[in-house]
Structure prediction request, 1018 residues.
Amino acid sequence: MLGGSALISTLVAVLIVVAFVKRDSETRVSPKLWIGGFGLGFTSAVLMALLAYALVLGESTLPTPRDGTVAVAAEGRQWDWRFRQPGVSGEIATEGVLNIPVGVPVDVHITTQDVIHSFWVPQLAGKMDAIPGKTNVLRIEASLPGTYEGRCAEFCGIGHAGNVFRVVAHDADGWAAFQRSEPR
Amino acid sequence: MTTRLTALGRHRALDRIWGTPKGWRGTLQSVNHSDIGKRFILASFFFFAVGGVLAMLIRAQLATPNSAFVGPDIYNQLFTMHGSIMMFLFAIPMFEGLALYLLPKMLGSRDMAFPRLSAYGWWCYLFGGTILLVALALGVAPDGGWFMYPPLSSKPFTPGINSDVWLLGITFVEISAVAAAVEIVVSILKLRAPGMRLDRMPLFAWYLLVTALMMVAGFPPLILGSILLEAERAFDWPFFDPVRGGDPLLWQHLFWLFGHPEVYIIFLPAAGVVSTVLPVMARTQILGYGAIVAAILALGFLSFGLWVHHMFTTGIPHMALGFFSAASALVAIPTGVQIFAWIGTLWGGRPDVRLPMLYLLGFFVVFVLGGLTGVMLAVVPFDWQAHDSYFVVAHLHYVLVGGFIFPMLAGAYYWLPHFTGRARVLRLGEAAFWLIFIGFNLAFFLMHLTGLLGMPRRVYTYPDGIGWTWLNLLSSVGSFVMAFGFALFAIDVALQIFLARRAPRNPWGANTLEWAMATPAPAYNIASQPHVKSREPLVDDSELPVRLARGEGYLATPRNNWRETMAVDMVTGRTDFVAVVPGNTSLPIITAAVTGLFFLSLLFGFYWLALAPLAGVVLLGWRWAWTLGSHEDLGPLDAGRGEALPAHWEAREAPGWVGSLFLLGADATLGASLLFGYAFLWTIAPNWPPPELVAGGWPEASAALLGVALATLAAGRTTVAVLGGKLDKAKRMLLLAGTAQAVVIVALASLVLRHLPDPTIHAYGAACATLVAYAVLHAAIALMMALFVSRRIAAGYVSPARTLEPRVATLFTAFAGAATGLVLLALMLPVMLA
Prediction:
């Protein structure tokens, strides 16, 4: 997308510069070429290709039901995040830290206690809003173990800037240990 | 014509009729489109400066990590007001001002269709803007973002006055915008120079026509949203509270249903400037006039189909997102058509880099980049990542600064000689351009990166050491460089206004009619109106300005102290009638002040007290309409060039009639948005309507339905009676119509009080009450109209030839009847299904 944009910008820039530089007055300009060719044809072709790509890519990131996914609940509030998920001996609740396994798709069920927030871990996936009265699902997946910064992406009042959380992606051993932790 | 006037004599006679008195009286009373247009432009530039200062405070805060310059409470007010001011108090009023000033001149006309309405719009804008500025100075400015999403903006989370200031202040200003929109549409369609067919109009007029139509359809959803949110805050009507059957997404739909067209409402007038200035700079004609008109119409249409792309992350099903993603990409096609038509025009001509062209080149660079990032954001998966990050901040500034500010600066330098009659002295404009262009790109290009590095919008500070520090610092430096550029621009303009030497007429060699008059333009614009034979009247006849001044056009001889201008058939441009527009009066400022009192009463929570200014507005409205018209049939009047035409009160398509049609268009959009909200909640919210709240009310509903049917019938008979000369029968019919409306009001009130649920316990009750309020308001206005027309008949203002007022009353009554019918259907549907 970036390359395409650079290419198109350059094309437009060159066309404009040439218009000023060429000094043969009274060029016969053909409306067919400029409006039909460039305006309609070129623009439509680029857009259609991009759109098709976008739809396919978008479809592939959807949380379609499949085996082996992990479900967690994320609840936003002014101004922190709380997470709940099943453990070995009952539900595990955490504040400010979301624990997930590496290499497994995780469906985050996002809700809010008060105003609209948005769940965003830039390195793992796009964002999804937490809207009063609704539950939205976002699929995230970490390919490497480690800690990822997450934050609220929808303006939610005075504490918005500090409304952050961490996602800890565990390897198999760490994940097993976490699941055995005491329910809270 | 009875007497022959010299050019100077004609100027004196016209100036006496059209001129603005000196001193305070003129300031308060002027309704002249040039005066009002210039005021809009100056005031909006002032608000631009205020919004700019807020932006600099924002950049000062973000220049360094963990900055303690302002806290989050102030910061939230800063960015909320920056966005709100730039959108509502700068961009919209700026182009309204340009339209008010330029349109009549470009169309070869003498004034806008409703001069008092322009003045009213101006005062509403000034008073509404002042409310917002005072709130800012007192530190109680809106702080929920310019998009005001509930529940953050609702009472529990914003208990102070902040949100109310936004909802009421902005709605107040929007009245001005809708008034201007209706006026622009009517002026373009009716008040053109004879012979100017639609396809001979300057492109600028096409752009503004579509823009104004979009405003007529686009502003009502936001006005409705603001009313609903204010009702939730003030009276606890839970439209957006999911616990009580509401949905916060309803606000987002209403807001973006306005908010996305808004972007094009801002872009199109600026594109109109490009299409006007660019061919002149290239010494040629625009390439593909027809294709551009088609592109404008397509843009206007498509822009209403992509509001959901602001809501890609709200959990809407992916299929629906695909549709809106496609529409968002599609909208780039008509934009692409225009861009390539402009570049083709440059190829076909011999372009020179004169100052306006320099700014247009800046426009091309910045706007094309903004358009490309826009297409990226239309891609849903990319948007999920970039949404609400600084990438979007960069994108929207590239689009708005590129698509509005740069063309407007080009337009400013292009038309300044017209405003001032002077030429530039120093070459400050070039220096200003480079400061603005370099500063802008430094500030905002880097924000793409900041956004991709994960910096979200609307955070008042950020930690050090995560790679955002130097990008933010450079952005801040760039924004200050840009601010210096704007300061230089302001100095340059001031120098030109006060110091520069006289400029020759038409310094750019343009071919549109605004250059066919003396500069600065006299109050009446042109001494006589031309007959237009092509798109380039000044090319057809280079002597045209002189011949018009000599009185060789239409309406060369003033009469009766009337402000006269020609009206034409909307499509063919054939002469239709002579419009006599009202002169200077204090009514607009008084009405706007009383309207302001109404909003202030609501702002401070004096809801019962608000009824007093409301009654005042009704009385003033009565007075407003009463001062027009004529006591006698005058028949055809001499219009010059051998034509005799009726005055507008004896014409079918009088401006008041056409204006009523489009005003009802806005009204219909408001009603449709309300029905949309009702249907939206019904389908989205669970357990809606709650069965225990659904009650009967058939007797009242039937009585109301019978009432509107009778009123509509009686109103229809009124017009027939007037046309047949039976004025007494018309009065009887009006009495019947008025009585029937009173019955409707009583029946609807009883329906609310006896059957519909309490509006505070569930959104269903709140929605029902709002629907009834909409119907009652219309019945009350229709009743007032019946009373008014009846009094006008008694006072001798109505005859079989002068039918405008009965026809407008009939039209409105029919509309009110249809609206009430739909409201009743919506109300009784749950009862029928129960």
Notes: Chain A has two domains: 2-60, 70-179. Chain A has a mean pLDDT of 88. The first strand of chain A starts at residue 70 and ends at 77.
